[in-house]
Design a protein that fits this description.
Blueprint lengths: L1 E4 L4 H13 L3 E17 L2 E12 L5 H10 L5 E2 L30 H4 L15 H7 L5
Antiparallel strand pairs: 1-3, 1-4, 2-3
Length: 139
Amino acid sequence: MLILPAEADESVVAAAVDRIAKSGGEVTKTDRWGRRRFAFEINDQTEGYYVVVQFSAEPAGQAEMERVLTLADEIIRFKVMVRPPVKPKKPDRRDKAPRVERVAEAPKAEAAEAPKAEETEAVEAPTADEDKESSPAPA
């Protein structure tokens, strides 16, 4: 955030943003808040022009950037804040494709029927000789 003199025009804002870019920052967004009244006097001034500049820079270059902004005559005050990293957004369950419902298949008609004659064992009727051997002798 930069606080510039109240009568700052577009050229002063551009010069301040240019100082950030020259000192190693890559400016991504500039938001002009406009003229605002101070809560207390700063350098015998009661109003200032607020500009919020979002930029990315290497941590090692932050000290140099703060030195450049401190020495700049057109900047009354500044504040450099480190933004937390952006977490990837979790997908919402409603965004997923609809679930496919599975319907249980009815048992096949063939499986429900009794086994076919070909599959059953053929049972032979006992012959007369076998019948005599297996039966007890008359007493």
